Amino acid sequence: MIEPRDEGATLRHDVLCILVECHRERGLAVFRDDVPREAIDALADAVARRLGPRIGGRYVPKRDERAARDAAVWAAFTGRNFEDVRRQFGISRRLLYSILARRRRPAVE
Question: Of 40, 72, 91, 99, which residue is most buried, by most CB within 10 angstroms?
């Protein structure tokens, strides 16, 4: 497996992980027994090289992860355990208050 030593290697590693996830979830045919590991690594490298310039410097949101984290924060919060929740999720006081405010705000239709 590619060790993430620099930004390029990290992106290649991320692409490889995405390919593995796609294989598991969707049966992507890249990972057949007859496909050598070097070919899979080469594919991840090629995708990373083409993807890097397209996303370089751009913010890539983590909406799904953020929503799941916010829901977990809301569920863990009892009204008195601010510091415990902050430590558990590794978030700042400001972010905790922001999450709680968004959750408390009534939905506007």
Answer: 99
What is the per-residue pLDDT across 18-30, written as a single tens digit (0 to 9) for each? 777 777 766 666 6
pTM greater than the 0.85 cutoff: no
Using 50, 70 and 90 to split pLDDT, how confident is the model at 109? low
The answer to whether 92 and 100 have CB atoms below 8 angstroms apart is: no
For residue 75, tell me if it sits in a domain: yes
Is 72:86 a contact under the CB 8 Å cutoff? no
CATH number of the domain at 99, please. 1.10.10
- CB burial of residue 78 (10 Å; 0-12, 13-18, 19+): exposed
